[in-house]
Amino acid sequence: FWLKRLQHFRGLPRAVVGRRAADAPSTRLLISTTITSEETPRAQAENSSNLDRRPMWSVTRPSRLTDVVVLYEAAAEASAPFVAEFLGTFFLVFTFGCCAMSCGAVWMPSAVGFVLVVTMYATGTVSGGYLNPALTLSMGLCRKIKWQVAIGYVLAQFAGALLAGSTVSASIGRHGPLGPRKDFHPLQVAAVEVLYTSMICFVALSCTASSVTSRKGDRKHFFALAVGFMAIAGGQATADISGAVFNPAVALGMGFASSGLGCAPWFAFYTLFEALGAIAAVGLFAATRPQDAQLLFRQGSLPEDLGPRFDSELEPLSGSCVSSTARRNSRLISEFLGTFVLVLTIGLSSRLTANVSNSWSLKPPPETPSLSDERCISAAWAGGAVLLAMVYSLGSVSGAHFNPAVTLAMVFSGRGSCTLADGPFYAIVQVLAGVLAGLAEHSLLRLAPERHRLTLGPKQGYGWTSVIVGETCFTMALALVMLCMTTVTSPQYSKAPSLRSFQSALAIGMSLAAGGLALEHISGGILNPASTLGTSMAGLVNFTPDLGLQLQAITIYISCQLSGSLLATAVFVGMHPLEYQEDPLLVN
User: Fold this and answer.
1) Does the pLDDT value for residue 102 go beyond 80?
2) Under 8 Å CB-to-CB from 284, ≥6 apart: which residues?
3) 173: alpha, beta or left? (left if phi > 0; alpha if psi -120 to 50)
4) Which residue has the higher pLDDT, 473 or 581?
5) How far apart are the C-alpha atoms of 59 and 32, rounded to whole Å?
6) Is 403:341 a contact under the CB 8 Å cutoff?
7) 486-500, pLDDT tens digit by residue?
8) Please, which of 381, 406, 431, 454 could form a disulfide with 401 given CB 3.0 to 4.6 Å?
């Protein structure tokens, strides 16, 4: 008897806990079933007629124990998202702190990125898996969560970070202080923290808050993978500049673990610029997705079903009209942004990974560090990671080419993903982004200590033949993977993926990483004309004596990369002949 009564209370929807019965007609039957059988028919009728005027908790109950159970379950359900944010942030900061004491410079960002992926997946269905006050701010500005929930999340994240920092300091030891690494200036720290915090928040918004990637039935399985790999890319690029924090909670936990309350000035510094990055991410999200800007910023009220979880769904705004010019501009902005971040990340990773021990450790580096192997892994791994994240984020906007060679293959394949009219604009924007990324890299490192200089041309022991064959073949592989993963639409290939498939961005990003690893000690593994120009900008700006040789190398590299893209088009046509045949069911 009592178990049956308890089941009725457990069946109450969470939305009506604490409300009056008049506000929740669907619960009247559940409440009325708790009236004891000893009541007379007249009392039962009187109770039923007065049910609308009585508070939910004033209805006769079989036991006060049931009230306690219901209140406990309601409190547990209401606090579950905050507990999830607390625990997720604790494990993230604890991993960061352990890596600061033990991991090498290359694998520390990977360890932090991997724990970010798994904790976001683990807590995503409960709280959204934000684990970052900057990301929480972006979600609040985009009206993904309500502000009272966002404030609670931030408090839970800071509490988890403080506990993690205290645990690391007490059990493992102290690491280097929070602040600029080595001889870098605070302005350089501010620049990279704003940039990569905004990219992490932008990737999260694009994968979870967009009406395109949040349609009915789309569970967005790739959201944590995209955010985690963007964190890996940013960590590879900036660990030697700022420590690759990108999270005010991490700044608090790491600062408290190393300096106690003395970390307050640098904690405020990092938090300020990471908050600016979160705000910038909202602007980039609106610029690349004008239809979502209408939905998120112009709608009068927050949708009822829009909760903190990552799987909440958004419906396109009825009556919204985005002009063709606005759509084209958003595609060009998307290509510029993705190419800029890709080229800058590869450039910084190539030049900054200089020590086997990471910049947080207080221990001296090994006597004989393997510098070239470290740079090889860092640059290739960072390039693959950032390409994976940006394809997940912007693939539904522009196709996520970020490479003039890929754009050339898309145009000549005739698959309709990039028309002949749009192709030249894509290429111009990509080249411009690559040049500006090279200049930005040069500006960031101009006042820094002497760093490794990445140049074009054959590496030691190899000739131009090796460079030509390597760049042509691996650019062909990259362009071919892009064609196969994003443009096959014929029903004859029923198992072909699309750009929104889970495996598409993963295959594209890992193809770039594979080429970079294979060619690092041969040609540098560039595989991208925009990256070729960005890599050469430091030498071109400084007017080095070998300027003529640099221009010759640029010409050879770009020619090989464009030739590889044309070869990829020919191979794709041979592999997918049915894509170019009319479906007999559609004839006549």
Assistant:
1) no
2) 198, 202, 337
3) left
4) 473
5) 8
6) no
7) 888 877 777 777 766
8) 406
